[in-house]
Structure formats: C-alpha cells, structure tokens
Specification:
15 strands, 334 residues, Rossmann fold, Quinone Oxidoreductase, Chain A, domain 1, 10 helices, six-stranded parallel sheet, alpha/beta, 24% strand
Length: 334
C-alpha cells in the first residue's frame, strides 16, 4: 500500500511517499480502506519532535480517519465488510492514517451517520470527543455563566452546541473577525455575549457583562490563558485543553485556589486492557448519535487534496501558522 512516512523529526521536508507493507488485521481488528483523514496540531508537534513524539508508534503520522471495512478479524461480529466507519485511532492502530489502509481494533470504530460524507465524518472524532470530554467533566450548572476562549473553532462550536442543548444559556466567548461572530450567532450565541478580543480591554469588556465566571474554558492558551485566569472567580474552575498556560496564568490560578481540569484526548489510551478502546468507540458513537438527532452539526472542512506529500505539507503549514480559519483540514485518499 502507499503510505507517507516521516523520515526524521523536523521540517515538512521529512515526509516521503513510499510503498509499505499492508497490515493484516488481528482477530479483534478490522482492515479499513481509508477514504479521508483529518489533521490536528498534534500531527505537526509529533513531526517536530516535541513532547508528543512519545506517542509515535509508526513512522506514518495521522490519528483520525473515515473509510470502508474491507476485511474482518475472526472474532468480529458487530461490523461487516462494506460498512462505512470512522475512528480516532491515536497510537492504537497498526499505523497512522496518512496511508491507504489501516488495521484498527473493533472497539475503536463507529459507523458513520448516513448524512455525512467521508470527509465530514473524519473531521468529527478529535474535535467531537474533546468537546464531549470537556462537557461531561465540567457539568456546569445551567444558571452559571461560562466563558469559552476560542468558541468559534471546531471544539468550541461542538461544546457550545452541547451546552445549549443542555439548557446552558449564559455562554460568553471571543471572536476576532466578522466571520467568527456570524458563525457564533448562527449556532445560538447572543451577540451581546460575544467579545472581540482585538478591541479594547477584553477583561474589562467581559467584566462589564455583570457576570461572575465560576467556569472558564481555555481553547487557545498563551495570553488568553491569562485572560481566563484573571476572569475566573476564586475557587472557580479552569478547563485547559491546550497545555499552553503561561507562568503568569498559573500563578493567578494558584492564588485563586482554582480547580484545574485538563482535557486530553489521548489520556484514555493510557488505561489498561480493553477500556482504552471502548472509551473512544463509545464516545464517537455518542457524537454521531447527536448528529443524527441534530443536536450538533458537522464541522466545517477544508480539503487540501489527495494522498500526497504536497497535501500533507500544506496541511501542516496551515496548522502551524494558525490559518485554518475554524475549519478542519482534510485529505482524501482515493
């Protein structure tokens, strides 16, 4: 099969298209013909040799996919050849997803909603499960205000929709341009609850809303973590999905005796036994169920091309320079 391997840590020039051995599924695995894969910041962080490199199992990167089952392991009973499925495979599959085929444990996968294309489906696992983990772990009371830094992105959009469906209406978030503001209004955020972080003093603008923010969710990191830390109430809750909190923010959070909740999509993979597989499959099925029920809608996507080194270079560069414009970057695989 064709696969794109990372020859060494470093620049995007280290990717190479090669013929590699096609995996054979174990008894509890399925072989999937990959039709589309999505890109995430962890991809370029692993490529650069950052801390995330410890998660690297295969020289083929890529952690989420959508495709068709073409072969079943001997013990598989819940799926059949031809099923259209998706998965966040992390480092738990035979290889990464920048390839034509992949062997995946049965409990990791979920059947695609009929209404989604392969490209739309592959955009959902990472952002969907991250938002769902965040929603499930904060359990924000409906009458409490919550501030979400970076709500217009993929994770933020799904989290906001989950909160609105739960009856949480005191949701405040940031925007940096008219497109993001329009998007946030379209998904149900009142315009008066949207603060342009490029205009004026964002802290004062938020405090002028007259709310006490016991809950803040940081989807951005960096200087925005300091906004979150200054805004959150004493004994409040700070939810971090970036691991980019500054030292100043950490000091403020400590002084306020803040409860810190770290959200990491790869954390369940550290569990032992089948639990680590079941978590991902169950969470993705829940996300797809909510799409079928119209509680959430597919993430906006940007298809950069077919399986090629050029497509991967472009995707990594868009992510590294923060030029995704709120869309999930997708590569098709013919």
């Amino acid at each position: 099969m064709k696969g794109i391997i990372l020859k060494d840590f470093g620049s995007v020039e280290n990717f190479e298209l090669k013929e590699v051995e096609q995996p054979n599924p174990e008894s509890d695995e399925v072989l999937i013909k990959i039709r589309a894969t999505a890109f995430n910041p962890i991809d370029y962080q692993m490529r650069q040799g950052a801390t995330e490199r410890k998660l690297l199992k295969s020289p083929i990167l890529g952690r989420e996919l959508s495709g068709e089952i073409v072969q079943l392991g001997k013990r598989i009973t819940s799926f059949k050849v031809g099923d259209k499925v998706s998965a966040y495979v992390g480092s738990l599959a035979s290889n990464g997803t920048y390839a034509e085929f992949i062997s995946v444990p049965e409990k990791l996968i979920a059947k695609n909603p009929d209404k989604l294309t392969f490209e739309q489906a592959t955009a959902m696992p990472m952002v969907g499960m991250t938002a769902l983990q965040c929603f499930n772990r904060i359990s924000t009371p409906k009458d409490k205000a919550i501030f979400i830094a970076g709500g217009a992105g993929g994770v933020g959009t799904i989290l906001i929709k989950l909160l609105l469906a739960n009856g949480n209406n005191k949701i405040y978030t940031t925007s940096g341009n008219n497109d993001s503001t329009t998007h946030l209004k379209n998904i149900g955020i009142d315009e008066k609850n949207i603060v342009n972080y490029k205009e004026g003093n964002i802290i004062n603008n938020l405090k002028d809303k007259g709310e006490n923010f016991e809950y803040v969710v940081d989807l951005v990191g960096g200087t925005m973590s300091e906004v979150c830390a200054e805004l959150v109430e004493v004994f409040g809750t700070y939810v971090d999905i970036t691991f980019l909190t500054t030292e100043n923010a950490k000091e403020m959070l400590f002084d306020k005796a803040t409860t810190i909740i770290n959200i990491a999509n790869y954390a369940p993979a550290l569990k032992k036994g089948s639990e680590k597989f079941e978590y991902y499959g169950n969470a993705l099925r829940e996300i797809f169920d909510k799409i079928d029920e119209n509680i959430i809608t597919p993430t906006e996507i940007n298809v950069v091309g077919n399986l090629s080194v050029e497509s991967i270079k472009r995707a990594h560069q868009l992510l590294e320079t923060n030029q995704t414009k709120g869309k999930k970057i997708i590569m098709t695989i013919e």
